[in-house]
Amino acid sequence: MKKHIALVLVLLLALSLPSISRAENKYEGYTFEQLQTEYLAILEAMWKTNEWQKVEVPAGVYQVGVEIPAGEWTLSSDDSFLVNVGTKLDATKTKIESGNSIANELVDKEDYKNGWTVVLTTGDFIELSDVVYFTVPVKGQGFTFK
């Protein structure tokens, strides 16, 4: 009986392999430009959905309006991190060019317990020194006194 069950399982697995390999080869034959277009479309769809609460963004340099949407964001992390927002990248395209910073801040978890909020404008670049969580800032009604 065990041999029959094992044989059925092997047959089912063998029949499902073509569908698994089709999923792995979804992008086979795409050019670099096509892959990049698909990547940016996925990023845009991810940012536009209302189903997320925070997005984990790895360390690196990102273009606002392309890889990260423009707008007001609260940045936080499990550790301290350096964030630099600027208008121009250096020759290596890995750092914001000196003298082109709009905002440059060491976000220490002790000093910014609720995160650090920044307004990002299309065309700017943001440089992150560590993994950072992006969330939409919570807006309250403010204080009212009687």
Helix/strand layout:
Blueprint: H1 2-24, H2 32-48, E1 55-57, E2 60-63, E3 71-76, E4 81-86, E5 101-107, E6 116-120, E7 125-128, E8 132-135
Antiparallel strand pairs: 1-8, 2-7, 3-6, 3-8, 4-5, 4-7
Summarize the structure.
This protein has two helices and eight strands. With 146 residues, it is an alpha+beta fold. The strands form two sheets. The chain has a four-stranded antiparallel beta sheet, with no helix packed on it. The protein has a four-stranded antiparallel beta sheet with strand order 2-7-4-5, with no helix packed on it.
Written description of the protein model:
With 146 residues, the protein is an alpha+beta fold. It has a domain at 54-135. The chain has two helices and eight strands, in the order ααββββββββ. The protein has helices at 2-24, 32-48, and strands at residues 55-57, 60-63, 71-76, 81-86, 101-107, 116-120, 125-128, 132-135. The strands form two sheets. It has a four-stranded antiparallel sheet with strand order 1-8-3-6, with no helix packed on it. The longest helix is centred in the first third of the chain and has 23 residues, at 2-24. 12% of the residues are buried. The mean pLDDT is 83.
